[in-house]
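This entry is passed on directly below:
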Amino acid sequence: MTDTLKIGNVAIERTAALAPMAGVADRAYRLMCKKYGAAYVVSEMVSAKGICYSDRKTAELCTVTDGERPMAVQLFGNEPDFMAEAVKIVLDYKPDIIDINMGCPVPKVVGTGAGSALMKDTKLAAAVAEAAVKAAGETPVTVKIRSGWSKDSINAPEMAKALEAAGVAAIAVHGRTRDMFYSGESDMNVVKAVKEAVNIPVIGNGDITDFRSCSEMYDRTGCDLVMIGRGSYGNPFIFREIAAKLHGETYEPPCLEEKMRVMLEHIRLILELSEKCEELAMHEARKHAAWYMNGYYGSAKFRGRCYQLSSYKEAEELAAEFTELQRNREINKV
């Protein structure tokens, strides 16, 4: 059996959590991952300054539904005053946890001095975190960081100590530097070093694609929880796999038919939750449909066709055609 991690007063099963992913982990995605066993989910990142200026998307991004709990709302920003004000606004949405992004590598975020740019300024990072902690009251605040800005400035343990001193309740560590973006290999040794440097819970993130890699992260780093990002693309089943095996239960991988059923369920949920018309909402669904088809015969051609989908009916037809192709290939093999 697995045990339970406490972040502040929030209990989380020590299986696997869903990482915050801008443009990917929206409510439909989070609900699908929760359905298949994610122990904890984090929202897409939200601009602290944007919230303070009544950004029209605030409610959409910050709302927490019962089906997603335990859930964190993630904020990004580099100004303590704006962060504190944003936290107070977000508290109205009753998140279980507030997370601060200090790891995003994209130029648009880094260019504002936020995200992984804060890895270059430990003092400012700690000030931002401390402002959030004071504003959050009883709601725990966590921070997600990278191993460092570059290979010559790996400072995650130092950063983690400063954040712990600022009152942060847990730290998530992605084992890549900012300049690696998502290339190369995530370094578990950095996660281990952070775990050894602080007394608060540490969440390990980077290159978790199955139970084996999840188990390795737990064993090699001593981390308190594992967080999965890109390994969940088109694969909410990864959470079911990890939970089952950590509980000592038998795990049956999904067959193609189940994958296509879940893909269509995911698309229906996107359409149901979207305020856009079907055609525009399908634009959001296209990449997800393509990810569910990864790894099969002829999938490159079908993934290309996914990016042309404009209706749910077309998605149904494409899934049926894709399934028929795989069946015929298996018959011809015999």
Remarks:
- The first helix runs from residue 27 to 35.
